[in-house]
Amino acid sequence: MRTTSRLALTGIATVAALTLAACGGSGGGSDSAAGGDGKTMKLALNQNEEHPSFIALEAFGEELSEATDGRWDIEVYPNATLGAQDETIQLVSDGGVDLSIVSAPQLENLNKDFVIFSLPTVFDSVESQMAVINDPAVVGDVYGSLEESHSFSVIGGITQGARSFYVKDGPVETPADLEGKKIRVQESPVFIAMIEALGASPTPMAYGEVYTGLQSGVIDGAENNEVSYFTQKHFEVAPYFSYTNHLVGADFLIANTGVLDSMTEEDRAAFDEAWQNTADNHTQLWGEATEKAITDAEAGGATFNEVDAQAFTDALSPLIDQFVTSDSQRALYDAIAAATE
Ligand code: GCU
Q1: DSSP E strands: which ranges in 115-239?
Q2: How many domains, the chain?
Q3: Do 219 and 311 reside in the same domain of the chain?
Q4: Which ligand 1 atom is at minimum distance from the Cα of 222?
Q5: Hey, whose CA ends up nearest to atom 9 of ligand 1?
Q6: Same-domain pairing of 142 and 240
Q7: How many CA atoms lie within 13 A of 120 on its CB side?
Q8: Ligand 1 contact via 103 beta carbon (within 6 Å)
Q9: Which of 60, 216, 293, 304, by CA, is between 20 and 30 Å from 275?
């Protein structure tokens, strides 16, 4: 049963986190050499082995290892075995875990400028998003903003594709169809506000709990991309996927600052180059995985429908004024707009 396995996983995550914490920060652990000599970095991921992020990140490790003659490597821990994203942020900050993939709203909780990446209409396609989220000229300041306060940097981004709603009990066509429904959201102010703007009731919850939440009726629906909808098997318990495409989401690679600082200049350059290739590879895999997810979810009984897109755009448009309030948010918002024109 999923409840049992989730509990078991939580136990594993706790043990894994404690063990890793006991190993200390960068350079710790039996598989790690000291400082600039390199190490096998632990990368936390909340997706399973089928997901394109896992596949691209495994290739990231291989490329990095090859480019650094085996000095630096990456071991990807999928299925949130090192913890939910908010927990892995803490672990990366402490140095018990070296790297993690985290969703934009998780970083919004640490620096409100990150909210810009989750606003509707900021990106209108995966292509426009990818043209920006690894460009240091646009995102360099915000990506480096957590180094001093939290001891990690954002290395770059990969897409989550467009997010849409899915529910248990019949297709959503207009915001009125969401009225009063309990909808799972990522734990962040902008996602909560988004659901409220649509007249639904937001329920913040970790990704790994959505399946049982839907199954037990704690929530009536959620929002995500087709790939997560399929790989997490949400289609089994919420078979109506409605193309609201309300935003194009971003995931970020975060890295412990101590580990980055222990790399030689040459190895750091190899790391950055391998990351760029990873992001490109991921975008390619993303398109293919999306097609497959739709076909396979349909074969499993899911239906996909179009919605009154204008009605959703109108309902969500006030979020821009509500969340772009400070000078630094405005500057980032404008820089992204200029770069995606
Ligand atoms: C996507 C995203 C994850 C995120 C998840 C969620 O799958 O890639 O990083 O955790 O959505 O809704 O929580």
Answers
A1: 152-167, 182-185, 201-204, 221-224
A2: 2
A3: yes
A4: 12
A5: 103
A6: no
A7: 25
A8: yes
A9: 293
